[in-house]
Write a structure and sequence with these properties.
- It is a single chain.
- The protein is mainly alpha-helical and 177 residues long.
- It has a domain of 77 residues: Arc Repressor Mutant, subunit A (Orthogonal Bundle).
- It has a two-stranded antiparallel sheet.
- Helix 2 packs across helix 4.
- It is flat and about 80 Å long.
- It starts with 53 loop residues before the first helix and ends with a helix.
């Protein structure tokens, strides 16, 4: 091999002798005697600082306030919302606020949030906790629409308060915005 980019290979010594005999395979997790573990090269991770723009800072304040409220609510409530339940609630609330409430069938078809069985279980938990309620569609009692329940409305109001406080803090820090 005449190329500089070629890899060097080592061959077993003549006679087939090697550090581990083929009849007795090495045990997993153990090194043969006399073999030192490989030394990992030192990896230098460059320090990347977050941007310091008004919008970035406002969103970070919103996330911090929202996380603080979640901690406070998790102490008061038996079971706080997990991120998947929160995402499902937010999608249902968006559709409801736009005037086209989501049906149970449409919610269960949201494949990016989980399987139909998992989504059905999440919907049941959100209904049990009071975040969602079912509403019959006029003309067809089989079709159920999802709307925010009392706990869901409180949750949305609380998130809105945090968003507004982050916005106001951003305006104070950056009066020209």
């Amino acid at each position: 091999m005449n190329s500089e980019n070629s890899l060097e290979t080592t061959q077993a010594p003549p006679g087939g002798d090697s550090a581990v005999s083929p009849k007795q395979p090495a045990k997993r997790g153990r090194r043969p005697k006399g073999v030192e573990p490989p030394v990992a090269p030192e990896v230098v991770i460059p320090k990347v600082l977050p941007p310091s723009t008004p919008y970035f800072n406002a969103y970070m304040r919103f996330l911090a306030a929202s996380a603080q409220a979640s901690k406070k609510n998790s102490k008061a409530a038996e079971e706080p919302l997990d991120p998947n339940e929160k995402a499902l609630l937010e999608l249902v609330a968006l559709r409801w606020a736009a005037g086209t409430p989501m049906t149970v069938r449409q919610a269960i078809a949201l494949a990016h949030l989980g399987s139909p069985a998992t989504l059905h279980k999440r919907l049941m938990r959100l209904r049990t906790k009071g975040y969602l309620q079912l509403q019959n569609v006029s003309g067809d009692k089989r079709v159920k629409q999802l709307v925010a329940g009392p706990t869901g409305l409180n949750f949305i109001e609380e998130q809105g308060r945090h968003l507004m406080s982050a916005r106001n803090a951003t305006k104070k820090a950056n009066p020209g915005m």
